[in-house]
Amino acid sequence: MNVNSTSSYVNNPSSNKGFSGMASGMDTESMVEALLSGTQAKIDKQNALKQQTIWKQEIYRDLITQINSFQSKFFKKSFSDFSSTSLMSPSFFNAMSIASTSSAIRASVDSSAAVGSHSVKVSQLATASKVTSTSAAGKHDLEGTANISEMYKTAMKDALAEERTVSLSVNGKSVDVDFSDLVKENAADNKVEYPTPQQIADRLNEALSKFDGISATVNTDGKVVITSTNTDDKGKYTDEIKVLTSSSSEGLAMTGLVAGASLGKDGTMTAANAPKTEGDVTFNVDITYDGAKTTVKIDMEKVMEQADEAAQRREIQRQFQEQVDFAFGEGKVQMSMDDTTGGFKLSTQYKTSTVMISGDNANQTTLGVLNGESNRIGIGGDLGMYFKDAFDADGKASFSINGKTIEVNKDMTISEMMRAVNNSGAGVTMTYQSNSGTFSLTANNSGDGFKIDIQDTTGSLMASVFGADGSTTTYTTDIDGGASVQDPDSGAVRIGNFVEGKDAIFEFDGVAMARNSNTISQDGLTMTFTNTTDQAETLTVNRNTDQIVDGIKGFIEEYNALLDKINGLVDADAEYRDYAPLTDAQKKEMTEKEIEKWEEKAKTGLLRRDNVLESFLQSMRSVLYERPADSAYALYDLGIDTGDYTQKGKLFMDADGEAKLRAALESNPDEVAKLFTSEDGIGNKMNDILNGVANTSSGSPGTLVQIAGVKGGASEASSDYNQRLSEIEQKIKNLKNAYELEKNRYWSKFNAMEKLVSQMSSQSAWLSQQFGY
Fold first, then answer.
1. Distance between CA 519 and CA 107 in Å, rounded?
2. Which is nearest to 657 in space by CA: 551, 557, 553, 543?
3. What is the DSSP string of 106-118?
4. Within 10 A of 681 (CB to CB), how many other CB atoms are there?
5. Each residue of 583-613: pLDDT tens digit?
6. Residues near 160 by Cβ (< 8 Å), separated by ≥ 6?
7. I need a surface site. Which of 220, 424, 435, 531 has the fewest CB within 10 A?
8. β pairing state of 404-409 and 214-218
9. Are residues 32 and 614 in contact, defined by beta-carbon separation less than 8 angstroms?
């Protein structure tokens, strides 16, 4: 790829103060540019050196990151830093696996476990003490009271407030026609009266008066007609009129117009239907049954037509039942209503089903319910919605659990109450089971000996939530696990159903044991019991040779990847010598792809034969080739060796290398571990080498860190490259100043010349005029 050698002029050589050859006719800008080219070349050279230094710094920093990642994974020295892959961790070479003969016993094992078998028989699982509701909490039916007059007022208000707008497009301009104020209440007939066809036409004419030749009339069928009289010289109607889909449904119904209708070729648009004469007066509420939702619309005009209030209530019940049967299926939700009082109940066919009433019209005034109230408890609902009789006159209640006092009010949600209990420090967790509609309090610790003592102190909220059996006692437990009565004469009511916790009872290698948890740690094993067993089951512990071999293979793979990266840098051809960093002017002449390819070449070989990297490679190779003084093994004894010289120190397993490694791990695992973990072992030596080159600590930075620094770290400012870049920046600054001085000097001389030439030209012209030339 050919690149123009034009410099990137850091300062424009032209001058807006000079004549720029106007008198002499010379290309003074080019001449100044040529005179400044020497200084500009020096600036470009320093910019190139700066860019190369930045690239080297980036390469070094990338290596620092990769080396530290490699070290963290395989050679962390501190015990607290040991990872599951650390070759310096004794537990890595003592990895164990465990197998169970029963799914009732899940087991894991750590490095302290011994190889061998254990027998386990589980007679009883540990359980936690628990209190549950004696029956489904809250109401089984959704109850309210229908206030017919308020329902009618609400329905009429909603009907009058409904949007009744028709939107037209007239020659590209939108025209909105609102008919809402023409709608009136007919109190005598319990109806909403709509405007007459002529009133509709009059309102349309008001809106269309700004357009000449367009008007609305009513035809003999009582339909609204929009007419245009505007035509071209050939008699073709020129207006474009269309009913927009943004029109409201009631606006279209009362005018008879249809969305999408447009002016015909005869210059008229006739409504599809005669205008609607009256609006619907409906009372709307949303009913949700087991997640399915429908809107029930009670026709209040029909309700008010009934002979008396009893008949009106029966009509409401009939319409409601008919619509929910259609929406959810016959019998799924039943409404019963008292003819005399208007009190109603919504019941469900199945005890586990939920029915909820919601919407703006579901309120205390119209139906005696709350918006979102249901026959079941919702944890987002207010306590007062479900347990309104459990609070004192101020709407407050308090109770204690295991001596911890919790205070609530009726406006708190069920969820907030449960959170208050769970955060109280009472040692229990409160939950709600929506399927059964019951609450539970479960001790946070399993096993016997954990009591759950509940007392209502203000109001009766806990008795309402959990139910009370009428007894004047409260349950707790003795130390030996037997049930006992506490304060039999206190007059306290036993709240909820109490089941005391139990310990896990099992045999381990023939020894009977009891624990308060189903997860037990024993001799390096962690066992979790999920069920009882009929007989003793066997847990077999083996050395996890597969995990150790895979870990060493992972080390070989990542070590080789690190070598490939560094060898690629130190062995790369010095292509950068033929591909100097591009100047800004050169980049303007190239595509992004061309710049990318050029810079790839310009970076290649920047670290060729780098002394620091070559020394680092040699140090690692030497350590991995040696046999530590106190070790029975070297890597090559375990089937791990280097290839020929072309492999540049990479590690390989020979043909039977894995078999050799496995045999050593089975027969002499401690000596294999010693190769890596001893004071003189591979791990410590590799750790020292890696620290020596990439340690980021400011107290003892590695060689690469001293040279390149770590971005954002203390080493960044003090690094060799940072100082070198500062020196280059100063040189560039000095050269730019020299450039400006030279430029001003050259332009001063050229401007003087231009001025002299101009004067001479003027004198010559005057003399010619005097002599008549």
1. 9
2. 553
3. EEEE-TTPPSEEE
4. 21
5. 888 899 999 999 999 999 999 999 999 999 9
6. 183, 185, 192
7. 220
8. unpaired
9. no
